[in-house]
């Protein structure tokens, strides 16, 4: 239970960085102001409940979770926790980068409350779940961030904790491992564990959480059913002027996500609704219109122009291009600047989706990219009655009586 919790940090007005500045201004006093990270937050979580905390970056949700974990103290209010606690908050916390997996698992498990003998007995389960058997003798400083995540999560689920605190660092894991984590969430639910999950993934909140809380500027602005909290979260993030200001999502700067031989360049990209208005938030059932500008450095005849849409777990959910719809796009000369438009009906579940546009020519076996901008922009789908599926398609259900439970055909499975 959390009652009226408050946490403030002091921010300096001026920071002295060098000895020269200190010598020139020895009497300068550094003033401070107070930044209120968490302000009068109250909620309770029942035993066996899965509780989600969502909010924009800087809303105070991670600070709140660190207070629950005992990493931060609180300036006012009260926090009551009952039972053994296991936390998954900071990537790499509790790990020694100069040790291998075995020593780190032992140390981390003991810090989380296991006895040395229990930690040894569960080591194989940890390393196998993390899929790191061939890397168990490698020092952790040579692990990727994804390997760190797998190891830390695997240790956490082997601890006999009553309450689990999990921050959004799960987003670092790949899609396959995230699915394994979700399977473990289901197991933990079945075992009656309590979990508090901080995340940006409203799909995960709706799928697993019994209730959720939305934070904004350190305060609770919505508490209740995940569906209602999710709708408010999308409204806070992507409605009104803010949606229009971020709808023009691509710019021409080079980045590491660019792939292609340079015959053409995708300069910028933006998302509109079917009325031609820039939008970040697209309601389910409406049309998503993606426009992007292409400049040509060389002549290209009938290029393939298209895009791929992926969800937050990097799963492709839609792809389309000019070849598949048999639409000739024309022949272009070096120096031409054109605008491409790809439109499709939004049948996607609520959540955030990234867009990867491309321009290519047909190779002997595959597309040969002139330019491909990985995750160049994004949009948000919103709508009621999410089922946990990737898409929400129009469909019909018909039920008709074909007999009774005493019918021989129903009893034996016989056919006529």
TrEMBL record:
Keyword Acyltransferase annotated: no
CDD domains listed in its UniProt record: ABC_KpsT_Wzt, Wzt_C-like
InterPro entries hit by this protein: AAA+_ATPase, ABC_transporter-like_ATP-bd, ABC_transpr_TagH-like, Bact_Polysacc_Export_ATP-bd, P-loop_NTPase, Wzt_C
Entry GO terms, CC: membrane
MF (Gene Ontology): ABC-type transporter activity; ATP binding; ATP hydrolysis activity
Pfam families: ABC_tran, Wzt_C
Domain ABC transporter per the UniProt entry, residue ranges: 19-242
Keywords on record: ATP-binding, Nucleotide-binding, Transport
Family: Belongs to the ABC transporter superfamily.
Protein name: Unannotated protein
Natural source organism: freshwater metagenome
């Amino acid at each position: 239970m959390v009652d009226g919790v408050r946490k403030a940090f002091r921010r300096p007005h001026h920071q002295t960085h060098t000895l020269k500045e200190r010598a020139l201004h020895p009497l300068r006093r550094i003033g401070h102001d107070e930044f209120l990270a968490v302000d009068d937050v109250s909620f309770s979580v029942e035993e066996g409940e899965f509780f989600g905390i969502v909010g924009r970056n800087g809303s105070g949700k991670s600070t709140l979770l660190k207070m629950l974990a005992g990493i931060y103290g609180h300036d006012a209010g009260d926090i009551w926790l009952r039972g053994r606690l296991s936390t998954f908050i900071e990537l790499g916390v509790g790990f020694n980068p100069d040790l291998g997996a075995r020593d780190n698992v032992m140390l981390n498990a003991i810090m989380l409350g296991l006895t040395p003998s229990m930690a040894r007995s569960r080591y194989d389960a940890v390393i196998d779940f993390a899929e790191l058997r061939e890397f168990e003798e490698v020092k952790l400083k040579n692990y990727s961030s994804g390997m760190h995540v797998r190891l830390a999560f695997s240790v956490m689920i082997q601890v006999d904790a009553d309450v689990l605190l999990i921050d959004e660092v799960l987003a670092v894991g790949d899609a396959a491992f995230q699915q394994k984590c979700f399977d473990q969430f289901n197991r933990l639910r079945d075992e009656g564990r309590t979990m508090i999950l901080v995340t940006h993934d409203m799909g995960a909140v709706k799928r697993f959480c019994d209730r959720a809380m939305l934070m904004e500027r350190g305060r609770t602005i919505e508490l209740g059913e995940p569906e209602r909290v999710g709708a408010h979260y999308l409204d806070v993030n992507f409605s009104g002027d803010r949606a229009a200001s971020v709808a023009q999502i691509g710019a021409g700067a080079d980045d590491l996500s660019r792939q292609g031989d340079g015959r053409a360049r995708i300069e910028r990209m933006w998302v509109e609704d079917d009325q031609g208005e820039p939008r970040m938030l697209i309601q389910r059932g409406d049309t998503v219109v993606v426009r992007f500008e292409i400049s040509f450095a060389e002549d290209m005849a009938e290029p393939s122009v298209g895009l791929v849409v992926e969800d937050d777990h990097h799963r492709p959910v839609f792809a389309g291009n000019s070849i598949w719809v048999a639409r000739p796009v024309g022949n272009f000369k070096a120096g031409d600047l054109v605008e491409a438009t790809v439109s499709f009906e939004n049948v996607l579940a609520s959540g955030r989706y990234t867009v990867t546009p491309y321009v290519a020519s047909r190779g002997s076996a595959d597309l040969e990219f002139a330019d491909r901008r990985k995750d160049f922009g994004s949009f948000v789908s919103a709508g009621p009655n999410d089922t946990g599926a990737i898409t929400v398609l129009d469909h019909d259900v018909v039920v008709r009586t074909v007999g009774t439970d005493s019918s021989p055909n129903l009893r034996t499975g016989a056919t006529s």
